[in-house]
Amino acid sequence: MKHPLLLLLVLWTTAAHPQTTFNVSYSATQIRQPLDGRVLLILAKTNKPEPRQQVSDAVETAQLFGIDVNGLKPGQPAVVDASVFGYPKRSLKDLAPGDYYVQAVLHKYETFKRKDGHIVKLPMDRGEGQNWRTAPGNMFSKPQKISIRRGAKQSVAVVMDQVNPPIEAPKDTKFIKHIKIQSKRLTEFWGRPMYLGAHVLLPAGFDEHPDARFPICINHGHFPADFDGFSETPPAANMDTTDYIERFKIYGYKKIVAQEAYDFYKKWTSKDFPRMLIVEIQHANPYYDDSYAVNSENLGPYGDAIMYELLPEIEKRFRGIGQGWARFTYGGSTGGWEALAAQVFYPDEFNGCFAACPDPIAFDAYTVFNLYKDKNAYYSEGPFRRTPRPGQRNYLGQVKVTLEETNHRELALGTHSRSGDQFDIWEAVYSPVGADGYPKRVWNKLTGEIDTTVAAYWRDHYDLLHILRRDWKTLGPKVTGKIHLYCGDMDNYYLNNAVYLMEDFLKSVKSPSANSEVAYGDRAEHCWNGDPTQPNYISRLRYNTMYVDKILKRIEESAPKGADLKSWRY
């Protein structure tokens, strides 16, 4: 028999929202054909900014519910009721009575008939870098204020009658050029035209020195709308400086960013700065804002497409030297992992990588847990206690969100690894294809229980430390002297834990020695990139100049006899 107080609580909760439902539909005035996708319903306590902009890992996050729809017709309601999974509250019945602002978004999916025979429905990137809030063609409703009343039967109609507009492509300038190619490899894999793009920063004097050929640096990172951090004009003297960045505890950061962009332009065009090409790649895909620049069962051969289709085209159009000794990679976070992965998977094609705050490069330190030995991603478990694992922290170690919470946000955003967010893209890149055509779950997204067979696949194919250790006999001679790692020892996502393990290996390995560099920023948070002389909020804006001296030294030490070391040093 249930305890009387527990029974009373159950009855009170049920009575508070006996049948609160939302009927979400879209208007035929905007789109007339049936749509597939994910209906997202957001409730917030304020409408500034709009509720869709308030979903996050922060404790102040808006409430989110999500439901898949297939062939949803104009005017046909998608019903969000107490059975629909939500974040951070799991069910509508858990919401307290009161006033809310509600908004709905339909994140559109397309059908892909892949080369492997699987048919999957996914949100194709439409130039926005996989952002469900702004993706062109996504339907959404205007925020409306509602009241959830205790004990009342309620049905709230939400009509999506707005459509996100197309995104204008960036325009070429004197120094910044844009390139877009259709990839043969990716088109074949996905069964439809697929493209790769890049923003190329040209050196000063490019047109005036037509016989010069240039080294190339690939600055890896998240989806770049345009080449960032370069401006031919200084910030206005009266530029507003009232903006406050809580993370850095400073005002006026937008002006600081603008000034750094102009300072980079002045340095880039100065007399003694080495002339080279810097490239930012656009490789957004149906799972994320970039591909992680490797081949993957679920995403396709992005590594080979970038390496053997896009990069040669860039070097052809913009007079790159086109040899491994003159190619370098760098980046932070996602870009840090990609820089190291490119060096590991294509060791002869690059002459050095500079990886800052890289995503986990050893999965036995997969943020705060061991993917191979632990049973649960969300909890450390003993015989009498389960302790939640932290997901983010600040430099004092204060926890912002748990791993369970951030994964549940992703689960509300999309099933089948379709949230377009961090843990889901790791899964999409690293996992084998499941029987349904979607990535195999490395852990149960709801409970955190780890699948050891999938974890073993991750280890053998994408654990960079494991691969280096396993293949050092053949890889070592090709990467010695090329690996540079930088990380704050208070990285917000605990990414320093894997760097520690990589450092131990690189220091101890012989035949050959790694001749690598590993450095840590004291109390530095995410995106620390190796400069102990500057605060992190400055150094993170200087990726494109941070490693130039080391690149030049590496070229001098390793360029083959007869290599062009002069035409680009005008």
UniProtKB/TrEMBL annotation:
InterPro entries registered for this protein in UniProt: AB_hydrolase_fold, Mycobacterial_A85_antigen
Which N-terminal residues, if any, form the signal peptide? 1-18
Which keywords appear in this protein's UniProt record, sorted alphabetically?
Signal
Which SUPFAM superfamilies does the UniProt entry name for this protein? alpha/beta-Hydrolases
> Superkingdom of this entry's organism?
Bacteria
Q: Which PANTHER family does its entry note? A: ENTEROCHELIN ESTERASE-RELATED, IRON(III) ENTEROBACTIN ESTERASE
Name of protein: Esterase
Q: Which organism is it from?
A: Spirosoma soli
Organism classification, top ranks?
A: Bacteria, Pseudomonadati, Bacteroidota, Cytophagia, Cytophagales
